[in-house]
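All the exercises in this workshop are built on plain-text protein records. Instead of coordinates, the fold is spelled out as a row of discrete tokens. Once this layout is familiar, the rest of the handout is easier to follow. The record below serves as our worked example for the rest of this section.
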Amino acid sequence: MAEREDFCEKKRLIELQNRTVDPRFRDSGYRSTQNYVGETVAWRHEKIHFVCPKPEDLTDLMDGLIASHKRMEAGNLSPVVHAAAVAYGFVFLHPFEDGNGRIHRFLIHNILARQGFTPQGIMFPISAAMLKNTDDYDASLAAFSNPLMSLAEYTLDDAGRMTVHNDTALWYRYIDMTPQVEALFRFVEKAIETELVDELAFLANYDKTKNAIQKIVDIPDQQIDLFIRFCLQNNGRLSKQKRADYFSMLNDTELVLMEKAVQSSYDK
């Protein structure tokens, strides 16, 4: 899906948000209330980390982001620069009540795949690299949010609802994305050197295990896939319940040999 379709347009983004969040929190359009990112540190005291654009500015800002995406896609721009500018721009605009972070990371996958940066059919583990390096990821967000916090004039009422009192649209319209682009290049490097290496090792072990099992008993590939998954979820052994439910056709000797095939490939 990420390789074929362009999700950076209003209708598709709303569809994506609806598929991402709990049905109770689906949006039919961009948010209509003021949003912010913060945490409760005491009774009726919020620590604000980021003030989002005013809802009345969102349509124009999102139209600008989508237009920029179209121009970058048509031009000869680095896919990593393109992905960083659009995905971070999206999360800084925070157009929905919920799901913005997940959509932000999906857009990185979507753009890198559509621009041919990642191999076809491979889920490039960029999200894993981002989420495993939280300090670097948080710093990439703070590079924009921290300076913004000294500029936004806002108040919170007793219910935690925010009102922004000054004109802020300009600060979200022309963002210097250099820190975010540099961060995404670092995440790409980590994904290639660490996450992708681990993924390829897993797949190599998977093929090895599958071939070994096929020599023990002739069962469909789907059953082999299920057997390996169940064993990996249970420290290399098939539980009695899973055997009764899915693999009652196996005799004890076959079961032991198949478990040993999984263990020899994955117990390192």
User: Anything to note?
Assistant: The chain has a mean pLDDT of 91. DSSP finds eleven helices and four strands in the chain.
